Amino acid sequence: MIRMVLSLWLCTLCWLATAAEPVRIGVLAYRPKAQTLAQWQPLAQALKQAIPERDFRVEAYSFPELEAAVA
Questions:
Q1: Could you tell me if residue 51 is inside a domain?
Q2: How high does pLDDT run on average in the chain?
Q3: Which contiguous run of DSSP H or E holds residue 26?
């Protein structure tokens, strides 16, 4: 019983810790990064409006940077 309670408590703490982190949306920047960010920023705003308890951040990456971020 105590293990179950501790496990549940630990899962709750982990969930709370990750809930505070912004959701990172990585996009491939095949144009200049500033242009790519401007193009994708409305998505982050729409998601924030739909899910106000979470923060969303768009990050533009070159292809090698995107591969490294996914890894």
A1: yes
A2: 82
A3: strand 23-28
